[in-house]
């Protein structure tokens, strides 16, 4: 029961002896057929079995035929137009090669016969394309068959319809079969299916990380969430931060986490274990300003400057930072109250003059000093309120958007 | 030159330890005989706000210089934590403070922009008066260990605020003979004449005044609002009566 018997190979065609002596001999011999330098490029050591018989290299093909090369025109059956191109053709004994253009067979052509076969099978197997693909005589993929079937059906439907409007709602017309998309979709599915356990775990980790980052970037979305679970978020931060920290030890490089709540900011600072007070103040300021718009923040900063307060304290001790923070909060309150007064004033004017033809306008950027109310019976339009000074020097300040400390 | 002072202070509600350490640099115009490349001698340092020795808290400081310097990573193993060099360029220096193991196992980064040239372009740089930039800051340890607390409870650079009731610290372990240790504070530092004196009093005063003004205004507005509300109520009532 020799394997060679089964395969029909001749016995002892390559005795081991021969093999062993050959490499031994080769090393002492200079190679023939190729020059010494070229041989040295291969490393100078011959392979155990020469890949090419060097004696064959110099031989030329037997030329008992007459071979010429001619520049001839050709047509491609895969093309719809009758474009005629030229190329070199190997002519043997004056006879040019026959047959179609060699690459034409790669064009996916559907013959009428093939299409008929397809439809026959479709009816027989009730549109079960997996089976149809199996039974189809020429090898076509499921997607190809589906594509052919649906496109033909669609064309027939449109052609038979009395008007385009009738068929517009037909699912085949509305959403034609998209081959490339289908192939892509199935490929993705198979990828997901064949994912190894490790890949699954890695993907999960990345998604969790992405989710966490997305959540950190939208703290304002859920004030309650952050208040309910600052420890959860904090624990998460620790968990992620710690491995990162050993690699790049720097807490100042942590993304600034803005929580809408002071307590959560403090909690996040505690987790850092060491931080600079300027950093802490920065975080707290951001937390308080997160509820206000950028314009409001600008106004607060301008007011601070007007009052002679440094935007960033020069000597940021604990007491100074606390005071600074409180001042900012109070300013925010002040601005909110101002807005409130404006709204109420605007509401007030129709009541006062008894006329309803003045609609309250949108509150403008008024200066710090609010207008005093006009309690008189005279009709005062909104415009007049702006222009009239009411004897206050501050009226001219209306036009200036900036607030002055002197107006206090 | 900027120096950042960080004070180590213990918070009350949340026990935290923080301490002032100014970090700073100063540049001095080199003599004209120096090569073009080394036109300015400068020193960057981290010092206690009142020149206290930071060695009890900071184990070593690593100054990361511009890559054009030889061995841009300079490690200073003992106080005073400073580094002197010469050059012509202004760049950001990253100072990494590594603390003792009982203090904090995580290092802290400070960023300092080296300033060599004076603000005022017209005033020429003198070889006598350096350009000084000092920035004050405080290092806060929100959750210090008992060992650390007991060790530094009497340290001048550290602010240890009142402990919560019932908590007592063990007495500090006597340190080695002070004379044996190298002097780590910067009280007699050659550059001390240029050190800034950081006082929080001015700033506190400023802030208090500002707050007072704002509070007064808030009260005024609140009065106004209640007045308007009263008015509206009155008018509304009268119109509905008609």
Describe, in short, the structure shown:
The complex is a heterodimer of chains A (408) and B (242). Chain A is mainly alpha-helical and 408 residues long.
List the helices and strands and how they pair.
The complex is a heterodimer of chains A (408) and B (242).
Chain A lengths: L2 H5 L8 H13 L7 H6 L12 H4 L9 E8 L10 E8 L19 H13 L4 H7 L6 H19 L3 H4 L3 H4 L4 H15 L3 H20 L6 H6 L1 H18 L14 H11 L2 E2 H13 L4 H13 L11 H36 L28 H6 L21
Antiparallel strand pairs in A: 1-2
Helix pairs in contact in A: 13-14, 14-15, 15-17, 16-17
Chain B lengths: L7 E2 L7 E4 L2 E7 L10 E7 L11 E7 L8 E4 L4 E7 L4 E8 L8 E6 L17 E5 L2 E4 L4 H7 L5 E2 L40 H42 L1
Q: Regarding quaternary structure, how should these chains be classified?
A: heterodimer
Largest sheet of chain A: 2 strands, antiparallel
Q: How many strands of chain B?
A: 12
Helix tally of chain B? 2
Tally the helices of chain A: what do you get? 18
Q: Summarize the helix and strand pattern of chain A as letters.
A: HHHHEEHHHHHHHHHHEHHHH
Lateral arrangement of strands in the main beta sheet of chain B: 7-4-3-10
Query: Biggest interface and its residues per chain?
Result: A-B, 54 and 57 residues
Instruction: Tell the overall outline of chain A.
Output: elongated
**N-to-C series of helices and strands of chain B:** EEEEEEEEEEEHEH
- Helix content percent band of chain A: 40-55%
């Amino acid at each position: 029961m020799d394997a060679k018997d089964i395969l029909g190979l001749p016995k002892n065609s390559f005795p081991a002896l021969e093999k062993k002596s050959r490499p031994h001999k080769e090393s002492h011999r200079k190679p023939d057929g190729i020059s010494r330098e070229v041989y040295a490029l291969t490393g100078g050591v011959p392979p155990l079995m020469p890949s090419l018989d060097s004696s064959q290299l110099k031989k030329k093909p037997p030329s008992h035929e007459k071979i010429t090369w001619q520049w001839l025109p050709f047509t491609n059956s895969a093309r719809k137009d009758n474009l005629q191109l030229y190329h070199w053709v190997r002519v043997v004994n004056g006879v040019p090669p026959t047959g179609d253009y060699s690459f034409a067979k790669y064009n996916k052509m559907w013959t009428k016969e093939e299409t008929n076969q397809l439809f026959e099978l479709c009816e027989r197997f009730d549109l079960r394309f997996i089976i149809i693909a199996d039974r189809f005589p020429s090898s076509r993929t499921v997607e190809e068959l589906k594509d052919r079937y649906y496109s033909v059906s669609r064309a027939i439907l449109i052609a038979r319809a009395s008007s385009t409007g009738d068929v517009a709602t037909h699912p085949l017309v509305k959403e034609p079969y998209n081959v490339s998309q289908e192939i892509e979709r199935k490929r993705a599915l198979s990828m997901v299916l064949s994912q190894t356990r490790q890949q699954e775990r890695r993907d999960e980790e990345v998604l969790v990380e992405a989710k966490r980052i997305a959540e950190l970037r939208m703290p304002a979305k859920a004030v309650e969430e952050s208040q309910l679970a600052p420890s959860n978020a904090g624990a998460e931060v620790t968990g992620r931060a710690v491995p990162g920290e050993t690699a790049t030890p720097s807490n100042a490089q942590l993304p600034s986490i803005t929580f809408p709540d002071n307590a959560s900011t403090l909690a996040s600072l505690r987790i850092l274990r060491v931080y600079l007070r300027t950093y802490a103040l920065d975080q707290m300021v951001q937390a308080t300003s997160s509820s206000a718009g950028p314009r409001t923040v600008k106004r607060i900063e301008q007011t601070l400057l007007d009052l002679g307060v440094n935007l960033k304290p020069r000597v940021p001790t604990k007491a100074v930072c606390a005071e600074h923070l409180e001042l900012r909060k109070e300013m925010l309150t002040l601005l909110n109250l101002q807005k409130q007064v404006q709204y109420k004033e605007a509401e007030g004017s129709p009541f006062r003059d008894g006329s309803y033809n003045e609609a309250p306008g949108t509150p403008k950027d008024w200066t710090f000093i609010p207008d005093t109310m006009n309690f008189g019976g005279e009709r005062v339009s909104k415009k007049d309120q702006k222009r009239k000074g009411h004897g206050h020097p501050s009226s001219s300040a209306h036009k200036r958007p900036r607030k002055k400390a002197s107006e206090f | 030159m900027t120096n950042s002072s960080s004070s180590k202070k213990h918070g009350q509600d949340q026990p935290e330890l923080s301490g002032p350490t100014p970090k700073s640099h100063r540049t001095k115009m080199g003599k004209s005989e120096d090569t073009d490349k080394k036109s300015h001698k400068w020193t960057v340092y981290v010092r206690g706000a009142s020149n206290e020795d930071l060695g009890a808290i900071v184990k070593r400081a690593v100054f990361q210089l511009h890559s054009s310097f030889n061995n841009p990573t300079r490690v200073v193993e003992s106080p005073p934590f400073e580094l002197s060099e010469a050059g012509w360029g202004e760049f950001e220096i990253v100072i990494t403070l590594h603390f003792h193991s009982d203090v904090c196992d995580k290092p802290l980064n400070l960023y300092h922009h080296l300033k060599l040239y004076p603000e005022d372009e017209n005033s020429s740089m003198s070889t006598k008066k350096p350009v000084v930039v000092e920035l004050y800051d405080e290092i806060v340890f929100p959750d210090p260990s008992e060992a650390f607390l007991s060790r530094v409870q009497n340290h001048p650079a550290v602010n240890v605020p009142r402990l919560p009731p019932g908590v007592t610290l063990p007495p500090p372990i006597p340190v080695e003979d002070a004379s044996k240790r190298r002097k780590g504070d910067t009280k007699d530092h050659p550059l001390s004449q240029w050190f800034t004196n950081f006082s929080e009093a001015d700033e506190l005063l400023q802030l208090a005044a500002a707050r007072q003004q704002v509070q007064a205004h808030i009260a005024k507005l609140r009065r106004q609002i209640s007045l308007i509300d009263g008015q509206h109520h009155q008018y509304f009532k009268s119109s509905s009566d008609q």
